[in-house]
Specification:
The complex is a heterodimer of chains A (145) and B (179). With 145 residues, chain A is mostly helical. Helices cover 61% and strands 0% of the residues of chain A. The model of chain A has no long low-confidence stretch (mean pLDDT 84). Chain B contains five helices and seven strands, in the order αβββαβαβαββα. Chain B has a five-stranded mixed beta sheet. Chain B has a two-stranded antiparallel ribbon with strand order 1-2. Classes of the chains: A mainly alpha (145), B alpha/beta (179). The A-B interface holds A 45-46, 48, 58-59, 62-63, 66, 85-89, 91 and B 29, 32-36, 102, 127-129, 131-135, 137-138.
Chain lengths: 145, 179
């Protein structure tokens, strides 16, 4: 029982380390690192939330081969990424590009934060004003100005 | 009557959220827009599935509209759409060219022998290189090219007669104008 549990826990704990693409593709460690970074940033379009580094779908295998060949042909990171977006669209990138039509997307967290801060600020000011004019009101209905 | 801001703001926020859901939930997340539409059909030179000596390329079909259908024997949706492709082929308005993707030649030929062959020609792409150039991410996918060889439409998923009549037929030249 204890052995089975240990085996189970070991399996669960190590699945995260199971890289699909384990082969050394490049002798040069710098190039290998560059290859790994590139395939982590490209989406496997059949599996959606996985990069082509994490997936062993046929398409992911083919795209990894394509990345390797483009690197060997001396293409830059930018050229390899645009090779992919010309064919598959921006969705193939795990990080959406910063462009006019994605500004709202990128600005969204800041906008939400600003909105939240504005609400806090207004509430605090109102309460402060209410406390100045009628301190007793705070105890009865703290939410109402 | 003045509606207090603290009711208005959450109501408005909720309405916006509902708006996003109404639009977003009706969309099929499996369908991605193709960046190829409006661009020339990507080049290829591939062997014909049935005859390795016959080399196929998009230039062979220029001068009239043509349909390019990506399929494989391992693809369930392809079997599903096969009857539809046969029906479209019987209409005889446009040639359907096949791209046999990441498949086995013998299996693919047997499939066409058993189920019927809707294709004017089938290009054989066992390594999936042409499929990458066409931005294929899951079979079946079906493209429509105009007479100049420009991609005008892409259908993702099994072809249906509804999709054919709705998205493809209106993009074809009127039957009278074709000799």
């Amino acid at each position: 029982m204890r052995g089975a549990l240990a085996a189970f826990l070991l399996t669960v704990a190590t699945t995260g380390a199971l890289a699909v693409d384990t082969g050394q593709r490049f002798g040069d460690p710098g190039e290998q690192a560059r290859y790994e970074r590139l395939i982590r940033d490209l989406r496997c379009l059949v599996c959606r939330s996985e990069s082509i580094a994490d997936s062993n779908a046929l398409l992911a295998q083919d795209l990894r081969r394509e990345v390797e060949e483009l690197m060997r042909a001396g293409r830059s990171d930018e050229e390899i990424r645009s090779f992919m977006t010309e064919r598959y669209g921006d969705f193939v990138l795990m990080r959406p590009p910063v462009a006019p039509r994605t500004w709202l997307l990128w600005a969204a967290p800041a906008l939400f934060l600003a909105g939240g801060l504005a609400v806090v600020l207004v509430t605090v000011r109102r309460r402060a004003a209410a406390a100045r004019t009628n301190p007793a009101a705070l105890d009865e209905e703290p939410d109402r100005p | 009557m003045r509606i207090p801001l603290r009711f208005l703001v959450p109501t408005l926020g909720f309405a916006i959220l509902v708006g996003f859901f109404v639009v977003g939930l009706k969309r099929d997340p499996g369908v991605l827009p193709s960046p190829l539409i409006g661009k020339p059909a990507p080049e290829f030179t591939l062997e014909s599935l049935g005859d390795p000596a016959w080399k196929l390329s998009p230039a062979d079909f220029r001068g009239r509209h043509w349909v390019f259908n990506v399929w494989a024997t391992w693809c369930v949706g392809c079997r599903q759409e096969h009857e539809t492709l046969l029906a479209i082929a019987r209409e005889d308005r446009v040639p359907i060219v096949g791209l046999n993707w990441r498949d086995d030649r013998a299996l693919a030929l047997r499939w066409l022998g058993q189920l019927g062959n809707p294709y004017a020609a089938v290009a054989f792409d066992p390594e999936g290189r042409t499929a990458i150039d066409w931005g294929v991410y899951g079979a079946p996918e079906t493209f429509l090219m105009d007479a100049r060889g420009i991609v005008v439409w892409k259908h993702i998923g099994p072809m249906t007669l509804d999709a054919w009549r709705r998205d493809f037929v209106p993009r074809l030249p009127a039957p009278e104008s074709t000799p």
